C-alpha cells in the first residue's frame, strides 16, 4: 500500500507538480492547479511515523491532522472543541465512578473492509496502557482495565480515578487500531502499510516529500468532498507561501503574518484566522543557571510579550501569563507577570549579574515551524541582553525537541508550542510542569507536591481551583515562561471552504467546495 521508494518522476506525478522536486516546496511558474477531485495541502512538518499511539511523534499536536484523516479517535471533537461521537457513540462513568461504559458504533469498517469490533477497542486501550508499548500517555490509559464485552458495549474497572479520561479519548494517542491486522503484520508491517477506519486511507508515501490519501469508501461518517488528498511536506514557510502563489497547493497555514495579510488579498486566494488552543511558551529546565529564582524571574519580567505580538505577529496573538489560555477551564486573568525590565535588572543584581556581567545560557528554538518562531526568540534574546542575560540561540527540529525533552536534556531555556485541544489544566500545567511527566522540563519537588494530589481529585471545582493556585505559584517562582495564545493563519484558494478548528488541525475531510 505504501511505497517508500519512488522515482523522482513518480513523486512529481503523484503531487501533480512539474520541474522541481516536491521536497523543495516549489513548483515551476507553469505549474497547474491540483487535478479535479484532488486537494493538496502544503504542510509544515514531516510525518515521522504512521503509528499515532506510540513514540515521540504521537504527542506532536501538529501531526494530528494527518492522523485524524486516517485513523478514528475514540471520541470526536467539533470545531469549537466540544465533544461528539467518534467510533464511540456513548461513554461515561457509573454513579460512584468505579466503572466506565463505552458503546461502539455499529457499521464502522477498517480500510481493508473488515468490521471495527469491540475487541479492537479493548486491544487498543490495553496496548495503550502497557508500559512496554511506548505510548507516551500510558499513565492515563493504565488507570482503567479489566474490560468486558457484551455485544457492542464495553465496560472497564477504574483502577485509579482520572477526571479527564474521556477528554483524553479525543486527544493525543487516542486512536483505535485494528487488532487482527496489527498482530498479523507487526509494528514494522503496520509502518509500511497502515490501515485505520478514518475517512481516508493511505495510498502512497515518500518520506520527507508527500503523503497521498484516497477516500475510504466504507467510512461511517459523511463522504469527504475530495477523493484524493496530498499532504506535501514543506517545512520552510517561504516555500509554503510560494506553493500558494504558484498554484501548486490549495491550502497552507503557519506562514508569516505579513505574508498572510498579503496573500489573502491576492486574486484567487482567501485567508482566515482563528485563535487556537495552542500557546507559545519557553520551557525552563531545572539546571544551572535556572536554579536561581532571580534569574528565572528576570527572564520572565524582561520580555515584552505585547510588543512581540504587535510587531512580529502583526497583532495575531493573545499574551498570556500562565499555561492556561483564554477558553481553558482554569484560565485565571487575575494572574499577571508584568513586563518590567527595571525589576529584571534588580533581580539579576541580587545574584551578581548585570548588562556588563551577564548570566549566560543557551535557548533552543525551532525555525519556521511556527510563524516567526526564530525571529521571536531573537527579539527575546535582545530584550534579555538589555537587563543582563546573554543567551545563545541553538536551532533544532521539532523532532529533536521531543527527543531531548524525553531525556530531560533540553537547554536551560527551550521554545515550544504547547497544544491543549481539550482545554483542561491537567493537559497544560499538569503535564508540562509535573516532574514525573515525560513532557516536563522543570522537575522540581515543589510542583510534584502541589500537582500530585490534583490528578485524582473527584471534586471538579476543587480540582480547577487547585490548578489556578498552582499557576499562581508558578508565575511567582518563574518556573516557565508563557508567551501568548496563537492565532492560526490559513490561506486557501477561493472556491474552497476550510472549517477552522479551535485545536489548530487542518482536516481535509472538513474542506469542501464553497
From TrEMBL:
Question: Family per UniProt?
Answer: Belongs to the bacterial solute-binding protein 5 family.
Q: Which InterPro entries does the record cross-reference, listed alphabetically?
A: Peptide/Ni-bd, SBP_5, SBP_5_dom, TAT_signal
Q: Solute-binding protein family domain: which residues?
A: 83-429
Keywords attached to this Swiss-Prot or TrEMBL record, sorted alphabetically, are:
Signal
* Lineage of origin: Bacteria, Pseudomonadati, Pseudomonadota, Alphaproteobacteria, Hyphomicrobiales
Q: Where is the signal peptide?
A: 1-33
- Molecular function per GO: peptide transmembrane transporter activity
Q: Biological process (GO) annotations?
A: peptide transport
Q: What is this protein called?
A: Peptide/nickel transport system substrate-binding protein
